[in-house]
Amino acid sequence: MRWYPKGYGGTRRDPDQVKRDGWHDEGVLAVSVDDDRLTWPERELVRQLAEKLYGKRQEDGSRA
């Protein structure tokens, strides 16, 4: 049996588990505006919050 420091070796967590842990442990929310689990009003709220905090996204699809 080998010992690995936390974050090395072992099994990799899936992205949703990382987001869940971030919310529970740090109070950080990571959500996609395109998440199908959200209703239209919820997606719109996420979009509006993101624009307020970080500004509008580029419309041409390229990333800054």
Roughly how many Å is the radius of gyration? 16 Å
Quickly give the structural class.
mainly alpha
Q: What shape does the CA trace take?
A: elongated
User: How many β-strand stretches?
Assistant: 0
Distance between the termini: 45 Å
Mean pLDDT, as a whole number?
Answer: 88
Q: Low-confidence segments, ≥5 residues, pLDDT <50?
A: none
- Tally of alpha and pi helices: 2
Largest sheet: none
N-to-C SSE series?
A: HH
- Portion in helices: 40-55%
Estimated share of beta-strand residues: under 5%
Region (Disordered): 1-20
Biased composition (Basic and acidic residues): 11-20
Structure described in brief:
With about 60 residues, the chain is mainly alpha-helical. The protein has 2 helices and no strands. It has helices at about 15-25, 40-55.
Helices, strands, pairings?
Blueprint: H1 15-26, H2 40-54
Account of the protein in words:
The chain has 2 helices and no strands. The chain has a domain at 15-54. Helix content is 42%, strand content 0%. The protein has 64 residues and is an all-alpha fold. It is elongated and about 50 Å long. The mean pLDDT is 88. The protein starts with 14 loop residues before the first helix and ends in a 10-residue tail after the last helix. Residues 1-20 are annotated as: Disordered. Residues 11-20 have a biased composition (Basic and acidic residues).
Question: What brief labels describe this structure?
Answer:
2 helices; 64 residues; elongated; mainly alpha; 42% helix; single chain
